[in-house]
Amino acid sequence: MRSAATALLSATVIIAIWHYAIIWFHVPNYLMPAPGAVVEALKRGYIAGEFWKHLVFTLKSTLLGYVTGCGSALLIGAALAEWPAVERLVMPYIVALQSMPKVALAPLIIVWFGFGLESKIVMVALICFFPMFVNTVAGLRQTDPTLIEMMRAYSGSRWRTFVRIKVPAAAGTIFAGLQIAVVLSLIGAIVAEFISSTEGLGYLISAASTTLDTSVMFAALFSLAALGITGSAVVRSVHRKLVFWGKSASAAAKE
Amino acid sequence: MKGVKLALSTYEAPSPQPVTNPLLTATGVSMVYPARRGSTTALENLNCTLDEAEFLSILGPSGCGKSTFLRLAAGLLQPTSGELTFRGRPIQGPGRDTGIVFQQPTLLPWATAIKNVMLPSENLGLDRKDSLARAHELLRLVGLSAYKDLYPGEMSGGMCQRVGIARGLAHRPSLLLMDEPFAALDAMTREHMMVELQRIWQVQRCSVIFITHSIPEAVFLSDRIVVMGARPGRVVRDINVDIPRPRTLATMSDSRFVSLTRDLRELFTDLVKIG
Ligand SMILES: Nc1ncnc2c1ncn2[C@@H]1O[C@H](COP(=O)(O)OP(=O)(O)O)[C@@H](O)[C@H]1O
Ligand SMILES: [Mg+2]
Fold first, then answer.
1. Does ligand 1 have an atom closer than 6 angstroms to the CB of B62?
2. Could you confirm whether domain A46-241 is CATH 1.10.3720.10?
3. Start and end of every ABC transporter domain (chain B) (predicted)?
4. What's the ipTM?
């Protein structure tokens, strides 16, 4: 309650400074819009205009790419953590791909997957893959060895050890990867849209830049921020629900 | 309930039959841990037997290979030489008939007390209804009925260790291995747990190998005490404890208890000096 009040107060102050700075310093609209103009652009865009269409497009590519990228990272990461042979087979390619800036691949992806939704999904998936992959492998490997030995002493099969011990032990780290991937997935979607698209919030920003319509650009940026914040909040709340025991719980159990 | 009655009647009429086949035997067991610079000989030519329903304590200074011996008995390690047998068969891996309690509770933080207790039965694919009933019975035995749905993070160290003991007995093992199970507890809880363990064992009547640093604990709980020496780990003394059961805290001021404790303390002091 108090933190909400503080946030509201600081937002009010910042918006007020922004508003009056533009009036006092005579900042032209093509450099920086006034808060009122941004609100106006948001209203126009979402009520009468085409903002929804763009928002849905970006949301779709982000979500589908996020699920594909994180899902495959989870599977490949788990296989790699469990079977050394898979590690020897796959790791060199993953390291090579990881050391490459994924954004540099965007034009190639557009050539291969076209100008539509598919290329955006691939770009998002690619960019989400690595943090998720690294965290999955690290999480599964950092499982408390005493728990694994306990499971062995009680005749636990390899599959049960994986499901009952390693996956829950890695859950916290995996969720950290999912959290990082939320922000990265939006970056991936916007980059792909910048390069070639006729839809999406990224397209909206680059289209508005040609007419120096900064209020629309700001409106699109705020929409993106809202997507990012919502995504992070969803991941965080699922994280809290599923990984309810936390680090302190296992530490407390040991004392 | 039937098991309880049976165990109690066994206790009231102790029939010391001549034991023909020990449950566990260790014959000339040596364990060498390989290392980059020189290897560690944790155990050398260790001989020991354990009878059915016997409570055996292993006393010894730190680093004399007590945990190593326990892990060999659990089938978690294979000896470098010598042989360990369980009911006459060489131990080749973790067995279905053995339970183990570690120094730390080693519970799953994401599972409730009852779920933790059920883990061994689930691993072994035992009947679910039976194992659930058994888990309830064991939690009652360790005095945690009311806490069965708590997570380890919500319980004290002593409660967690009791869940660990209940888990050790879940699949009705003939052998329970305990590696300094009370070492992480405070002195008061420790004494209480010691009395509790005797009570639990008298109901369950399995064989126990109990590793401890505490001489009174060993004397209080055991039928037999094996004293180990360090560098290399070996058996120094094998002592029978002929103090009638059930033993109570009052037993601890009994003259037999006091003199045995004193003898062991002297032996121990010498061992530590030499080691
Ligand atoms: N996994 C291991 N690798 C190498 N050396 C070990 C290992 N485990 C134990 N040791 C060594 O073996 C000896 C006996 O250890 P341990 O069985 O843990 O003794 P205790 O339980 O009596 O304190 C010690 O010197 C210890 O350092
Ligand atoms: Mg030890």
1. yes
2. yes
3. 24-255
4. 0.85
